[in-house]
Amino acid sequence: MHRPLPCALFVCLLSLFTAVAASPQGAAGAPARSGTDSPRKMEPDFQPGYRFERGGWTYVHLEGTPSQIGFQHGSLLSAEIADMVHVIQIESTHATRRNWEFFRESGRKMLWPHIDPEYQQELEGIAKGVQSKGLKLDVWDIVALNGSIELPQYYVPWLNKQEAAKHQHAAVAPDIKPEGRCSAFIATGSYTKGGKIVIAHNNWTSYAEGARWTVIFDIQPARGHHVLMDGTPGVITSQDDFAVNDAGLLITETTITQFEGWNPDGKPEFVRSRKALQYAGSIDEYVALIKEGNNGGYANDWLIGDRKTGEIAYLELGLKNTPLWRSKDGYFVSSNFARDPELIKTETSGFDFNNLASSPNARRVTWEKKMAESRGRIDVDLAEQFMADHEDSFTGKNEADERSLCGHVDKNKRGIPEFDWAPYYPAGSVTGKVTDSGLAANLSLIAHAGHPCGEDFLAKPFLAAHPEYDYLKPILIDMKSGPWTTFAAGEKK
């Protein structure tokens, strides 16, 4: 459900952002208009966007030119965007020991010059939409929010090494590992009921983010394909990347554990993933667009399906290594493990594919078992059951922990060292999504807010039991589990 901001927090956020510079126009690094939006089309009274709440999700319809889509996004979700920026501020500054101004400046200098003009306009539109509701966020806050995975977890580790070589900042620079995110599969042909493509995904992240990662975006752009995806307030791409488009593509991904790499001249991942989703009409086109200008940020294993052909693909998108596997009769599973030996050797900090006690590999074993046991029976109903599964393949027990497909890291003292998640860190599966070729033909998916197993996370008793996470008190809220809920493009309520 939509969670309105408490009055005190809203006032606090207003005060916090009043001091931030308001407009990017005329600021250093801000590009001139490219002409994507005509002056007439940018008139603010064009407002076809709307929102409603259902099943623990906020459904947001956006349409028009980039600036119009951005303005609708910012105005419809202004309070939620300010709240999300606050979450990312606390998490990123704690993890990296760098302040929010560093991330704003990094967005302006490192990311902005490599963002396509249409997405620059959409980001500016989001900032203007937020400002229209009285909040003083500017476009650099919005860019930093969109870069909230690749800046702290990919750019900062690269920068720390650059500065260490020059004896700068290294004394206080922490060792940062990218967080592993998600459990997913895609199957087709003889593995599924009726031979159709079935795809499913659990988003793994901190509960502070996950309790807010509950937006269904229905985006109808003036150019490109109509898109239905889940996402977070203020971000132009799905970010956990579960989506369908009207060209027949079904998309998801999981993060590559312990990946290292950054190209300062590359294009941000949040731009590449949105562009591929909006403009690709085939697996080949999607692969080409997601690889175009690769900066190494948010390195993922991509699961891609084309309902027009029944073909599925698995792209392991490193910076140096980008192997692609394809099938018209089979499956691909993913749970934050790299599978290409060369990528493991040259682009991770030592990922151990054979350590079956680790979260990524334990989940891989579970996935392989479920695919073998379920051949010919996989459909969206069975996919929902997979997403809620608590099997720990390493212990052989049925227990919710860091090794179950429905992850509950907060319940175990091991944490996940590969992700830099300490014992009992409040993180795990925060949403589930499933769809198939038939649903995707109607731009439809089924989504579950909160743990797909149905268990609620309650912040107050957790914080009382774990004072080591007191720094999260301002942002850690209850994450209630909602029902599996069907959404489709163009819905009104």
Question: Which descriptors would you attach to this protein?
Answer:
493 residues, alpha+beta, Penicillin V Acylase, Chain A, six-stranded antiparallel sheet, 15 helices, disordered N terminus
- Give the proportion of residues in helices: 25-40%
- Biggest beta sheet summary: 9 strands, mixed
Please give the number of β-strands. Answer: 17
Rg over alpha carbons: 21 Å
Whole-number average pLDDT? Answer: 91
Structural class: alpha+beta
Arrangement of strands in the largest sheet? 1-2-5-6-7-8-9-10-11
CATH topology (level 3) name of one domain: Penicillin V Acylase, Chain A
**Low-confidence runs:** 1-45
Q: How many angstroms separate the termini?
A: 13 Å
Number of separate helices: 15
Give the C-level CATH assignment of one domain.
Alpha Beta
The CATH architecture of one domain? 4-Layer Sandwich
Q: What portion of residues belong to β-strands?
A: 15-25%
Shape: globular
